[in-house]
Write a structure and sequence with these properties.
This protein has about 250 residues and is mostly helical. About 70% of the residues lie in helices and about 0% in strands. It has helices spanning about 25-30, 35-45, 50-65, 65-80, 85-95, 100-130, 135-165, 185-190, 195-210, 215-245; strands spanning about 5, 15.
């Protein structure tokens, strides 16, 4: 928070307002000056453009990696399922049709928006619960800008796949696990991922700025998000294991 600014109980700022940069300036600040980016968002929330950029990047990465993802999913299903697939069935599972490209792109856009909304809502409610006074729009704006970090992670993964042919690209502690892909322990380790942790650090700074929290209290709010997300991942994997009959 800049000198001369005070956070009011309703989440509004009062004091001298510095000249705000545009989306490009805020995008750069996410990576090089996160506190400045969050201070700017606290004064003037903005969520549409970052969300649009993240959704488009997710759709593009999903489409460009559709073939690799189809083959990987086919192999995982074949390894985990007790059903014996024929060669023809396996070939069909690895095909990438126009319809699949479209559903991949639309799915990426939908889940990007849904995830940002859920993350923002959870952080807003937890922040309220521990004494925060920021408006939802400010918290949601910070959440959307933080998602640009994960978009960068997607672009890095895309570059690695195209340059090395390695898929999937693992940037979490799961790379140290010798357990199977469907192991719950391995899924839990996937929560400790480089770009996700980077995003959480940005969110902690953002919650501190827009809510007027100390970094410790902001970290508590973000830790709830980390635990909920990790729990959901483990829970979904457990249900999938049961459905596929994985031991």
């Amino acid at each position: 928070m800049e000198s001369g600014e005070t956070l009011q109980p309703d989440g509004e700022y009062q004091g001298e307002e510095p000249e705000e940069g545009g989306f490009g300036s805020r995008l750069v600040s996410v990576f090089v000056a996160p506190r400045d980016a969050c201070s700017s968002l606290a004064r003037r929330p903005d969520w549409f453009l970052p969300l649009l950029v993240v959704a488009l990047v997710a759709a593009a990465v999903g489409v460009l990696l559709a073939k690799e993802n189809a083959l990987f999913g086919r192999d995982m299903m074949a390894d985990a399922s007790r059903v014996e697939f024929t060669e023809e069935q396996l070939a069909r599972m690895g095909e990438v049709t126009t319809q699949r490209y479209v559903t991949t792109a639309l799915g990426a856009v939908f889940w990007t928006a849904a995830r940002a909304l859920l993350y923002g809502l959870l952080l807003f409610l937890v922040g309220k619960g521990i004494g925060g006074g920021a408006r939802f729009k400010a918290v949601f704006s910070v959440t959307c800008y933080s998602s640009l970090i994960m978009a960068l992670g997607g672009l890095v993964a895309l570059a690695v796949v195209k340059l090395t042919g390695t898929y999937p690209v693992e940037t979490s502690l799961a790379v140290l696990s010798g357990e199977s892909y469907w192991s719950l322990g391995r899924v839990a380790l996937q929560s400790v991922e480089i770009f996700w942790i980077w995003q959480l650090v940005f969110l902690t700074i953002g919650m501190s700025v827009v809510q007027g929290f100390t970094m410790g209290r902001a970290a508590v709010a973000v830790a709830v998000l980390f635990l909920v997300r990790g729990g959901v991942l483990v829970g979904v994997t457990a249900l999938t294991r049961g459905f596929l009959g994985v031991g």
